[in-house]
Amino acid sequence: MTIQNTRGRFITLEGGEGAGKSTQAARLESRLRARGFEAVLTREPGGSPLAEQIRSAILSGAIAPLGPAAEAVMFSAARIDHLRHTIRPALDSGKWVICDRFSDSTRAYQGALGNLDPQFLRELERVTVGPTRPDLTIVIDVPAELGLARARARSAFADRFEAEGLAFHEALRNAFLDIAVDEPRRCAVVDGAGDADAVSDTIWRIVCERLVESPEPSPEKKAAP
Ligand code: Z5A
């Protein structure tokens, strides 16, 4: 199978808690590397030294009392540093970037669930991300109960968002599915409830199909937000 590699590709993985994003991001990176592609695996919030410091502040819950607008600004500040120091340099040198969460998480967590003004979020995303939009976003979809059970089995400690109740996580799931419906050329929804090998095979098939046969940026990417 031939994958065009004239420039770096930017793939993001999104979804609720315990969907399997980190597991699948690592597998995708391995598959790309095994085929000779240079790939960078990174995450949000974080992915650069300053962004990792901001991550600690947000996930500790220290920012939460300031409300969702302040959290959105903090995630965006981390994203600006991450884009500047990690994502753009990698893409510019022809590497593939696999990012565990990106701006759709701000849209879902702070936007949909925080009830922020959509115009404010669109403008924040525009100044934060600029033209560096994902070529492909994999939304890993699992029932909220399953995702939470996986997250809790992995760690007894619940961070800022894991501590929210089931209704929050069901609404979160719907927010990610809505994003995928709005931008079908950029997004692909993958059922994450199966075993990790099967999910990985599905993601790999989508990456090959979308990035081999449609090497140009999608219309949504050119136009958004
Ligand atoms: N956040 C935000 O609000 N706004 C933003 O703009 C951004 C983020 C960027 C970051 O937390 C938090 O920040 C996040 C959103 C918010 N909310 N929380 N909490 P994080 O980085 O610490 O964690 P996360 O991004 O939410 O990921 P996660 O919940 O840790 O899960 P995951 O990456 O989707 O899953 P995983 O680590 O790959 O797997 C979880 C467990 O399930 C693990 O034990 C695996 O071995 C197991 N697993 C994975 N796949 C399978 C399958 N297929 N079958 C069975 N078991 C599996």
Give a written overview of the molecule.
A 5-stranded parallel beta sheet has the order 2-3-1-4-5, with helices on both faces. It is globular. The chain is an alpha/beta fold. The protein has one domain: Rossmann fold, CATH 3.40.50. The protein has helices at residues 21-34, 49-59, 68-92, 103-113, 118-129, 144-154, 166-182, 196-213, 219-223, and strands at residues 10-14, 39-43, 96-100, 136-141, 187-191. Residues 213-219 and 221-225 have low confidence and may be disordered.
The pLDDT mean sits at 91
DSSP strand content: 5-15%
* Rounded Rg: 17 Å
CATH class: Alpha Beta
Total beta-strand segments: 5
Q: Mind describing the biggest β-sheet? A: 5 strands, parallel
Strand order of the largest sheet: 2-3-1-4-5
| Total domain count | 1
CATH topology: Rossmann fold
Which molecules are bound in this entry?
A: ligand Z5A
Q: What pattern of helices and strands is seen along the backbone?
A: EHEHHEHHEHHEHH
Report, as a whole number of angstroms, the end-to-end distance.
33 Å
What attributes characterize this protein structure?
single chain, about 220 residues, alpha/beta, about 10% strand, globular, disordered C terminus, binds ligand Z5A
Layout of strands and helices, then pairs:
Blueprint lengths: L9 E5 L6 H14 L4 E5 L5 H11 L8 H25 L3 E5 L2 H11 L4 H12 L6 E6 L2 H11 L11 H17 L4 E5 L4 H18 L5 H5 L2
Parallel strand pairs: 1-3, 1-4, 2-3, 4-5
The site of ligand Z5A has 26 residues, from helix 1, helix 4, helix 6 and helix 8.
